[in-house]
Structure formats: C-alpha cells, structure tokens
Design a protein that fits this description.
34% helix, alpha/beta, 2 domains, 7 helices
C-alpha cells in the first residue's frame, strides 16, 4: 500500500521551478532518507506533502488525499494523518511536556479529558519520557525535547511521519538514540520520510535513499 504517490509533478516555490517531473512512490512502513544540498528542493517537497505548497502540475496522493483536489479547509484533516518532526522543536515553553501534547490533541478535535490523558501517557512512555511529563521544555535535554517532538507527531497515529533534519541540533550519541526510536516507530507500521545531511547516520542505519539534485529526485 502506497502512502505517497507522485507522478509527473513539478514543484514551484514562488513561481520558481524547484523540482521537475517528480516520480515518487513510498509504501506503508518504509523508512526513506532524502538528501541533497541546501536549496536543492528537499524542504519544498516536504511542504508539498503536508499541504503547505499547492500541487499545480502532475498527480499526487498522500495518505489517501488527492493533492490536486486539496482545498485549504482539508489541510488540517490531511495533517492528522501526518506527523511532522522539525529540527527546531517548536515546543510551547510555558507548558509542561504533558500539556504540550494536550494542546495538540485539543487542536485536532479531542475533547474527552480522560482519553486525552491516557493517550498522552501512552505516547510519553513509548518515547522514553514516561516520568518527564511534568517538566517544561527548558528542563529537558536536547534529546528529550526531540523525543517530545516525536511524541507530538505520534499522537494521532499518523500514516506518515515527515522528519526534517530531526538530529540537526543534537550530539552524535543523542542522534543515534533518536534514530533507534524512529526505526522502531517505522517497524510498527508508520512510514517515515527523513531529510538529512548526516551521512554517518545513513551508514549506521541503512535504508532507501532519495537525492534531490539539479532539479530532479533520483534513487541514490
């Protein structure tokens, strides 16, 4: 089963053609790296997949949503099926880890407090933060903050997790811990597409690699 399908897609950023004639298929449970120089189109492709860029050329489908027919009001529903992990965390500094996750659940339609608390505790346990729910982000290490970001991405059991340089701000040892967690999540059925510049991690955790180069995407 394909989670991502793109055919004959041209991706534009402010009317500038960034990637041309993209053909891409990613199946359920796959772990896929995306590499390429800064400005090669990696971020533009990711934005297209989570509905931040409009598809105007070619055919595209993500988690069952036709990107050509995607309307602005549909984007929040698409994003319930996608977990996004950013390099710069984007956590709410004035709330505990638990309340950071509760905020996301409320924003995505949860309203039963008991069910929210149960789900949050399950996810914190899964990412190794079961005893840290009361702490605010500034009381967590960089690796723990990234685990919290991954927990946030997992809350609604996404079919696809998009990770944009998730280890970019972490030391090598912590990066390996985060990669172990991401691969564990992938083995449980979630598809992961990870943009990275870290070739050491690709060698340590081998998987399928896509490269953005000269306006094209190719298998590496």
């Amino acid at each position: 089963m394909s989670i991502v399908k793109l055919s004959k897609v041209n991706i534009y950023q402010n009317s500038h053609l960034v990637l041309a004639n993209v053909e891409l298929k990613i199946d359920k449970g796959e772990f896929v790296y995306m590499i390429g120089k800064t400005g090669s189109g990696k971020s533009s492709l990711l934005k297209l997949l989570y509905g931040d860029l409009e598809l105007t050329s070619g055919e595209g489908e993500v988690a069952g949503y036709d990107l050509r027919k995607l309307k602005h009001k549909d984007v929040p529903f698409l994003r319930r099926k996608i977990g996004i992990v950013f390099q710069d965390f984007q956590l709410l500094g004035d709330r505990s880890a638990h309340d950071n996750l509760k905020f996301v659940l409320k924003c995505t339609g949860w309203d039963d407090v008991a069910k929210m608390d149960t789900r949050i505790n399950e996810i914190l346990e899964r990412v190794g933060l079961g005893t840290k729910g009361f702490k605010r982000p500034n009381e967590l290490s960089g690796g723990e903050q990234q685990r919290l970001v991954i927990a946030r991405a997992l809350l609604n059991e996404p079919e696809l997790i998009i990770a944009d340089e998730p280890t970019g701000n972490l030391d090598p040892e912590t990066s390996v811990d985060i990669m172990n967690l991401l691969f564990e999540i992938s083995k449980s059925g979630s598809t992961i597409l990870m943009a990275t510049h870290n070739y050491f991690l690709i060698e340590r955790f081998p998987s399928r690699v896509l490269r953005c180069d000269n306006g094209k995407i190719e298998e590496f």
